[in-house]
Amino acid sequence: MVRLRYLTPSILAVCVVSIIPFVSAYDFTESDFTIPNWIKNNAGWWADDQIDDSSFVIGLQWLISNDIITLPTTEQGVGDGENVIPSWVKNSAGWWADDEIHDVTFVAAIRYLIGEGIIIIEQEVEEVIGQVEEAEETSGCTFKGLPVPCPDVKEIAEISDFQMKVNSNDCFYCVAWGYVGEKFHIQIETFDEIGMRHIDGVTITAKIVSKDGELRHNFGTVTTEEGIYNGHIIIPSMDWYAENILSVTGEYDGVEKIIEKEFNVFRGKSGGGGITVSGASDCANVPPVSVKDDHPRPQAIAFSPNGLKMFVTSNTDSGDSIDHYDLTGPYCIATGTFVNGTTIETEEATPTGMAFSPDGKRMFIAGKHGDEVNQYNMDVPFTPSDATHVFAFAISDDQEDNPEGIAFNTQGTKMYITGASGDRVNEYDLVTPFEVSSASFAFSLDVSSQEAKPTDITFNNQGTKMFIVGSGGKEVNEYKLATPFVISSASHEYAFSVSAQETNPRGIAFDGSGKKMFIIGFAGKDVNVYQLTTPFTVSSATFVS
């Protein structure tokens, strides 16, 4: 049980509930109620329409009647026959599930449902009393006043339906992509009919098929333990390249449910499941490649995981765009073909940083005009011309009012922003992977003693090294991270100067092997290539001239 620790509602909570008279002044204390923390899952599913209103209300009635949820004394309403749940109650459930409001606000919402007669507790109690009396006559076994099976009597399952989740956001290692030679994780959870508790006994079969229906792996029948199954498969070869489907079938008491999850497979090399997964071909060993015709003021550079697509952000008098190039081989920047440019000036007039999710279906643009991170979703991976703007995450001025670079950890649960004003790296936690709408500030790392004007940031595959390029020192600074992707554990290792090639470096990228580094800048308006004899170790870098 989780007991309430805080009684003062957050600003958000006050805004939500101020229109409801009985919520604005709490007449109960922290000892008056308990709410199990796991109920947040159900509140979140209800808010996301994964379970309907009736199921959620019935579940609350059962939990309250059985003393799993305890509430302050609340007068029972009679209802108006319509039992319409106000939208603010559902919104409150979602915010409570995301820890954006306190327990006390959610309790107030439940009390409102009771007071309006939408949740009927007294009726439930009368029914339970009747069940108790009948059970005592037949079995004589009760617990907390409720009928229970006697020790020598086999328990009979009373549920006639179930719920199932596959690779939900609760699974840290479950992502929508995989790499050849590495693990692809699956997690299956089974719940009772109202989604309130995990159950075993569901017959589950799982398999992976291609998008054309070809069987690629059969997990067979799997078994849950306390309602959860965790497993994985090593992706065997490039035969799995591109789109695949994880198909899970669950059957319980004659009820069958099927859930299918799409995921993409990329060419890769073992290395911790990093974002970039392909090494550069020999054709990447080229002198500086000019981009001045397309990019008078180039800002950032990025590649697709297989190195066959290159993207450059720029600011021009005619517009601000993301330019897309197709390459003839992995990271072969000299033979790139311009595909198109996607204008984004409606959302950001001065784009400075750029990042993609590993599956290429999300693009993120940082900019210093709006001081925001703009998220775009794409149905066609790594195709900015297909992008749809979905959200703008505002960066607070006290964190950074001149954002330049952006990066994510492998799982998409952390976002990093560099800026020229704050001379630091800001770390944000994301509740939902690669969804900036769920981001919240976590930590700020001062890098001013190494770089006064950091312009871009990236990491090695394992998240044990961080690299910051800047126009102040005209260097690439390498940091060692004692804890992967946790910048508070960073220690400075080395500063590699690029001033001989570029006096205003703006963007940085590595190939998947960590043996090629790419720097793009304002001054030369070109992409410079560096060869590293030791992967992701800039002290071993030499300029390819």
From TrEMBL:
InterPro entries: Host-pathogen_enzymatic-act, WD40/YVTN_repeat-like_dom_sf. This is Uncharacterized protein. It comes from the Archaea. It comes from uncultured marine thaumarchaeote AD1000_44_E12.
